[in-house]
Amino acid sequence: MTAIGRAVAAGATANLAMGTLFAWSLMAEQAAADVGATSTTTSAVFATAIATFQAKGIVMERVHLDADQAFTLLSRLSQEENTKLHDVAARIAAEASTPPTV
To answer: What is the mean pLDDT of the chain?
Structure first.
């Protein structure tokens, strides 16, 4: 695991702003309506957005970056690992919510 990955996995989870989640929900619903998607697709889009916001918040809190820098870092990790951004974000969020072993 990289130093950044260890730093991200070392602390508590970040809180999400309800206004941001609401905005993403509206955007996901509108995007789904525009393409005629089902509610399952809308749910998947929303779940991906939540994981990305959680990971960005975790990186911001643990590595002391602003929102743009945190997203850039997540994007770079995604490219370096040749992994989709939402998969990197989901892994960071999952690792952050796992309590350390004693």
So the answer is: 73
